Amino acid sequence: MKTINFAVSEHNSRVYSLIFFVGDNMKFKKYATKMLMIVIGSIISACGITLAIGAGFGGATLAILWQGLTNVTGMSIGTSSLVVAVAMIIFAFFYDRKQINVGTILYQIIYSFFVDVFTKIQHYTDIKAVNFVIMLLGIAIFSFGTGIYSAADFGRGSYEAVTFSLAEKNGWKIKIVRMVLDIIMVIIGVLLGGKFGICTIATVLLSGPIIQATVSTVKKSKILKNIS
Predict the structure, then answer these.
(1) Is the pTM of this model over 0.70?
(2) What are phi and psi of 157, to 5 degrees?
(3) Where does residue 91 rank: exposed (0-12), middle (13-18), buried (19+ CB within 10 A)?
(4) Which residues contact 228 (CB under 8 A, 6 or more apart)?
(5) What averages of pLDDT result for each successive group of 10 residues across the chain (228 residues)?
(6) R_g (Cα) of the chain, nearest Å
């Protein structure tokens, strides 16, 4: 009877070990996929935003602040974006830390690094119409990359973290908070020497729908369904 009990116990142990192994493997696959989405989304976003703001039609809302900081301090655009992001992450961490996750930090480091990389290698023409098309393409690419990153649900971006922390803590509407923050960023950026222009308006009008469509498409894809 003892031998039988030992055999049953050993069998159960193997079953439990197998369950834990499969569970850990699925968890690793889930996190690895999300991390990869953040890396890919960050690089694509950085490529798009540099195309848009380098075309000569002003900057996106937050990019105007980066331009202003660069103008005043002499820092690169990538470094300026990182400084702004760090300040926002610190604020969100102390104000509503649930908005911050691994993806928040990873995204910003990769994004800021590649903003500098793409800024140095991208070229434009002397034809304004062509540069205008490049700007629109840049906004679309930026929004697409942001959608991929956002679909990972692994922490909000620095700007989104501030937006949601203010909105959720105070019961304010997200769109109102974002609108006020955008206005503040643009005003400060312009005062520091950033450029307001068509790109600013185009980003506000185009980025939202593209990001939403990308997030919806990615979340419905087999990639996320297989790890959820």
Answers:
(1) yes
(2) -65, 165
(3) middle
(4) 30
(5) 49 48 65 88 93 89 92 92 93 90 88 90 87 94 89 82 88 84 92 92 86 84 60
(6) 22
**Which of 86, 66, 46 lies closest to 186 in space, CA to CA?**
66
What is the 3-state secondary structure of the chain? CHHHHHHHHHHHHHHHHHHHHHHHHHHHHHHHHHHHHHHHHHHHHHHHHHHHHCCCCCCCHHHHHHHHHHHHHCCCHHHHHHHHHHHHHHHHHHHHHHHCCHHHHHHHHHHHHHHHHHHHHCCCCCCHHHHHHHHHHHHHHHHHHHHHHHHCCCCCCHHHHHHHHHHHHHCCCHHHHHHHHHHHHHHHHHHHCCCCCHHHHHHHHHHHHHHHHHHHHHHHCHHHHCCC
HSE toward the beta carbon, residue 18, CA cutoff 13 A: 6
Tokens of 150: 């956002």
Specify the pLDDT at position 4: 47
Rounded to an integer, what distance in angstroms lies between the CA atom of residue 140 and that of residue 214? 11
Spatial distance between the Cα atoms of 152 and 154, rounded to a whole number of angstroms = 5
Structure tokens at 68: 């202003």
pLDDT value for 46: 93
